[in-house]
Automatic annotation (TrEMBL):
PANTHER family reported for this sequence: CONSERVED MEMBRANE PROTEIN (PTHR37814), MEMBRANE PROTEIN (PTHR37814:SF1)
Domain of life of the organism encoding this protein: Bacteria
InterPro entries, alphabetized: YkvI-like
Transmembrane annotation, as ranges: 33-56, 77-100, 112-131, 138-160, 180-204, 216-238, 258-285, 297-317, 323-343
Keyword Transmembrane appears in the UniProt entry: yes
Keywords recorded for this protein, A-Z: Membrane, Transmembrane, Transmembrane helix
Protein name (Swiss-Prot/TrEMBL): Membrane protein YkvI
Organism: Oceanobacillus jeddahense
């Protein structure tokens, strides 16, 4: 159970930086649909549970040291190759976005220059990647309970201090920008986008676990925690839409309104999420080419980290923003491939 919880927490810890950090993502994919956004959150939870379970077990079955083997297994020779290239590029791109984002957060909350903030994040990421795999998973997993606690405090505050009725909040919600035409497609797009970010590390983590039941339970727990966070953040923002409407970082706005100290704690949580995502993405990217036990691994980590730092100041984030819009569709391809692999597995008689 402890190992399953660690896998699940690391899965959550990786995804939150890419899909939860600002609260803006939950606002656009769920809260903007008002009451129906809650139903969308439940649908997303069920999808995360199923897909977390499926990818974790595939990772264990194939003992994948990187995502490559599993992606080729579920996608075949040609589709697998396309998915592999896109995922690998996306891993590097998201890590670069985290470097740039952490620089901005350090500047906004603590008055540290953007470049200095990015240097701190790059240095921490490189040092972490020089550790062994289990230590990396442990570090990523450790931030998750802290994040859940902060979000839960904000939720309780939002519910008990709201000045809006549910009907008023529902009207205000539908005035917000949406990332999808309806709540159901919003839930699917959100899961598929995050899956494109999280599947690679979940496969790598599960590849180090020989018991498929332990890995599968880890995927399920990760799905439950991700879904719970979506619903908690959604309800917290829904009940305080008069405060967070139009804000770039709604979760930080709620935290700062509660108390300046909670705002600082939330800023630290945001940096922790970005750190988790940067570490997970760069680790998955590096092991796609070089196994962690090879001599070339550590020098490669330093070189790739420095390249990521340079890219964060060279306009690379603009390119990644364009790629982000395609990630939902890549995720759909992954979801379909995972479902086919799951049916194929349950219909194959065990020897």
């Amino acid at each position: 159970m402890k190992k399953s919880f660690q896998i699940g927490s690391a899965f959550v810890g990786l995804i939150v930086g890419a899909g939860f950090a600002s609260g803006q993502e939950v606002m656009q994919y769920f809260t903007s649909f008002g009451i129906w956004g809650t139903v969308g959150g439940i649908v997303a939870t069920l999808l995360f549970i199923f897909l977390g379970y499926t990818f974790a077990q595939l990772g264990t079955d194939l003992q994948g040291a990187s995502h490559k083997g599993v992606i080729y297994h579920i996608g075949g020779r040609y589709i697998g190759a396309i998915l592999d290239i896109l995922i690998t590029f996306f891993l590097f791109g998201v890590a670069v976005v985290m470097f740039a984002g952490s620089g901005s957060t350090f500047e906004q909350m603590f008055g540290i220059s953007t470049m200095a903030g990015s240097i701190i994040m790059v240095t921490l990421t490189i040092l972490t990647l020089l550790l062994n795999t289990q230590k990396i998973i442990g570090i990523i997993a450790a931030v998750t309970p802290y994040l859940i606690a902060i979000i839960f405090i904000i939720l309780i505050y939002s519910i008990f201090t709201t000045d809006l009725s549910i009907s008023e909040a529902d009207i205000l919600a539908k005035e917000q920008a949406s990332a999808a035409p309806n709540w159901l497609l919003g839930a699917f797009l959100y899961v598929s986008y995050n899956l494109a970010a999280g599947a690679a590390l979940l496969i790598v983590m599960s590849g180090g676990e020989k018991d498929r039941k332990v890995a599968g339970l880890g995927g399920i727990l990760g799905g439950v925690m991700l879904g719970g966070l979506i619903i908690l953040i959604h309800i917290g923002m829904f009940m305080k839409l008069d405060v967070v409407a139009g804000m770039d970082m709604p979760t930080l706005a709620l935290a700062e309104q509660l108390h300046p100290v909670v705002g600082i704690l939330m800023a630290i949580a945001l940096l922790g999420m970005m750190y988790n995502t940067a570490v997970g993405m760069f680790y998955s990217f590096t092991v796609r080419f070089i196994a962690p036990d090879r001599k070339a691994y550590k020098p490669a980590v330093v070189v790739i980290g420095l390249l990521g730092f340079i890219a964060s100041f060279a306009g690379f984030t603009t390119l990644v923003e364009k790629v982000y819009s395609t990630m939902g569709y890549l995720g759909f391809a992954l979801i379909i491939a995972a479902i086919i692999a799951w049916f194929r597995r349950i219909n194959t008689p065990t020897s």
